[in-house]
Amino acid sequence: MKHTISSSRRLIYMLLLLVIVASVTLSIFMERTAHNIRHNETPLLNRTIPQMRYLGDFESALLRYQLALDKRFTDSITPDRFQFLESMGRSELEATLEQLRPSLGDGPELGALRAAYQRIIRLTPEFEREVGVNPAAARAVLIRMNEEVKQLRLRVDGLQQGVEDAIYDNGSMANRAIGWITGLVHVFDVLALVTCLFMLYHVRARVRVEDELSHQARHDPLTGLAHRRSFEARLASLPALPHVVVLGTIDRFSRIIGGFGHAFGDRVMIGLAARIRGAAERHGGEVFRLDGANFAILFRTDCSDLAFAEALSVLRDEVRNPYDCEGHEIYTTLSLGAVNYPQHGANPDVLLRNADAALQAARKAGGDRLEIYSQQLNAEAGERLDMEALLRHAVERDELELHYQPQQSLGDGSLIGFEALVRWRRHGKLISPAEFIPLAEESGLIVSIGNWVLEEAVRQISVWQAETGQPVAVAVNISPRQFAAPGFLAHLEDLLATTHVDPACLELEITESVMMEGAESAIALLHRLRALGLKLAIDDFGTGYSSLAYLSRFPIHKLKIDQSFVRNMHAVSEQSAIVQATISLGHALGMTVIAEGVESEVQRAMLSGWRCDEMQGYYYSRPLPAASALNFLEGSLQLQAA
What we know:
The chain has helices at 2-73, 79-104, 108-133, 135-218, 228-237, 253-260, 262-281, 306-320, 348-364, 375-392, 433-443, 446-468, 480-483, 488-499, 519-531, 548-551, 563-566, 573-588, 601-609, 626-641; strands at residues 243-250, 286-291, 294-299, 323-325, 328-330, 334-341, 370-372, 400-409, 415-426, 429-431, 474-477, 506-510, 535-541, 558-561, 592-596, 614-616, 624-625. It is α/β, with parallel strands linked by helices.
């Protein structure tokens, strides 16, 4: 587009330059032509035209002189009258001859006229002598005079014709010059018209480009929807009437990009944006794309209005419909957070902040739902921000500690090891892991916290081995984010090399979600961890992403049955079936199976009857601080010795 505009500008400048050059050339040519016309016409005005008039006067005088002769011959006038007329005619002829002198000069033309005139005048006395005496002789003289007059008139007519030819020639030259000027004016007019038309086209194109740039400045280039700044400006310009601001996000859209790439994601986004726009506009909504997979919708209604509920229901159903793109069937859902004006905020900033709090609550609840803002949401969001800020300093302030939950063999009832569980003690009070672990995962703090847990667990293994003289196994949970961190393996290798702890005493518990992205690289890392001598376990088996194909390739020692299946397995037959199947699967794959969350003898007996290998839970022991765990360990060793 820039290249096109630049070329158009150059062409306009060339046309304007051409018009200027043509204008200057035309002016010079017109000036020269006018000068030539003036140069040629000045003699015409000063000499030729007066000459023609004087020739006419001379011829008139000659005719009157001839008439006087005729009248004298026919006795129409008296001799006295004739003498008077003859004298006047001669004087008039003399006068006109003198008037012709400036234009004819003393050249042959004037000499010929004068000679003819003198011949006529010389015949007059002879004519006067014979007119009354000898009419025949007078008649002959008169004939000769008339012949002279006739010849003189022919000469005068010739001179007049010459004057007329000169006038005609000058006029033809002037006409040709004027014709050239007229042609040049026409060419100049056409050139100016073409330039004006092209400039009009360029101005129109410039206006069109400016309109397009203005549209792009206010709209998202991918979907064509108005963008965030337009949305904020729209909110600021709304009249003080009730309206609803809805923020929405397409759930897990990053998985589509991760699976098929950004270009494919863009094409899906275009289609979904068109769906959202169509569904919202059918119910009077205005749609804006904020960024990524986030949208904003403005409704001129109230959250409690049935029409609003219907509009959002239609919108969510529209997004739920499978989207076919390049042969792939894509399923998506929409999380929504809504606020009322002015109930939930009197200005755009407050409305957007509260709508975002409602949206985050919808996402936290699993997505594919609508949350209406309430004051509690902001309070929770503020608490989470405060907790995140405090959690960032928990390690450096030595506020984290490990508790150890004993694990028991169901075969002989002996202690087989501990699971290390992180706790956060703030101002003397323990904060539930259910509160801060998800926050650590979301914020990325889980990596630094996980590294601290590993270091503390290995240190504790070393301490217990020194105090008891026996190797002690400790299981540590590894989050998917920590597992995928670039320095995870190097950190473990350095830790084991520094502490000289037997790697077989450290068990890493991972979840199957590490397979969600980069399964092959995850399997390779597991093999390297096992090569170090570490024990590996699958934690929370069956609660998330499960793939038996990948599970068969995992270099895993142990399967851990999640407590959600153990808790009600004695009352819910489906859960007992899942537990039995997991035990059988683990054994078939050559793995040890451990159940967590065992809280009763009934549960323990059922697991023992199904040949589960190990268990942990409140029935055996609650998680213990390090000192209490040491006492538990020593007591168990004493029982084994006895």
